[in-house]
Design goal:
With about 250 residues, this protein is α/β, with parallel strands linked by helices. It is built from seven helices and 14 strands.
């Protein structure tokens, strides 16, 4: 069974120089309480593996959203991600300050590289990236007359993921699309720490509701406070839709 910990105890498990996977997509489905605590901890030189660099501005009035807090604080020395265009500080630190190494990986390749580690595979063969900068330093293979790049597995010291519900045995359930990166990152790290919105009794999650089984989970932090802050993009789209509806559907 996992250990249920305070957020202070969980943050202490991440030392300087650690490689950490962060679940979520543009901050949606991320472990925000933990990230906020980590941003105040002083830990530095992190290698961060995540879908993106998130963005300035959050739905609760934050100056920086999700991993953007860590990037702003210059706690990240290397970022492995698929999309960083909405966070201008990534370009600033990488191209001008020269303080942040950025490795851009095609989104599907990143997902499969993480999944490959969890499955114990030696890598992933993909045609994506052939003939582009993505190919640099990688092995090209020809199989049945078709060219592929060999992408090696991605592994982390810690996977920091967010779940909607956990039972007291440590089984996890994600809500809708939040399972995306969270679900496979849980299998690709030495230590799995989960921030969860709701803790339920064993048996309340049915077999078909469990997205990550308990043996994979090491530690659980039960989140306090607000439960489901809206993604900034969703808030903007919601406001536009409401304004359009108020005008009778007219633009």
């Amino acid at each position: 069974m996992p250990k249920f910990v305070s957020i202070e105890e969980a943050v202490k498990l991440i030392p300087d120089g650690a490689t950490v996977m962060f679940g979520g997509f543009m901050g949606c489905g991320s472990a925000h309480k933990f990230i906020d605590a980590l941003s105040k901890s002083g830990v530095k030189d992190l290698t961060v593996i995540c879908n993106d660099g998130s963005m300035p501005g959050g739905p609760m009035g934050e100056d920086y959203y999700a991993v953007a807090k860590l990037i702003h604080n210059k706690q990240v020395k290397k970022l492995v991600a698929t999309h960083v265009g909405l966070n201008p500080e990534v370009a600033q630190q990488n191209m001008q300050d020269k303080t942040l190494e950025v490795v851009l990986v095609p989104q599907g390749s990143l997902a499969e590289m993480i999944r490959a580690d969890g499955a114990g595979l030696g890598g992933v063969l993909t045609p994506t990236g052939i003939g582009t900068d993505v190919e640099r330093g990688k092995q090209r293979l020809i199989i049945d007359g078709k060219e592929y790049l060999l992408e090696l597995p991605l592994h982390a010291d810690v996977a920091l993921i967010k779940a909607t519900r956990a039972d007291k045995a440590g089984n996890l359930q994600f809500r809708l699309t939040s399972r995306a990166t969270n679900s496979y990152m849980a299998f690709a790290a030495d230590t799995v720490i989960v921030e969860v919105e709701e803790l339920v009794e064993v048996g309340e999650l049915g077999p078909d509701e469990i997205d990550v089984p308990a043996p994979i989970v090491d530690m659980v932090y039960v989140r306090q406070g607000e439960k489901k802050p809206f993604c900034p993009m969703w808030k903007r789209n919601k406001a536009k839709a409401e304004a359009k509806a108020a005008k009778g559907g007219k633009k």
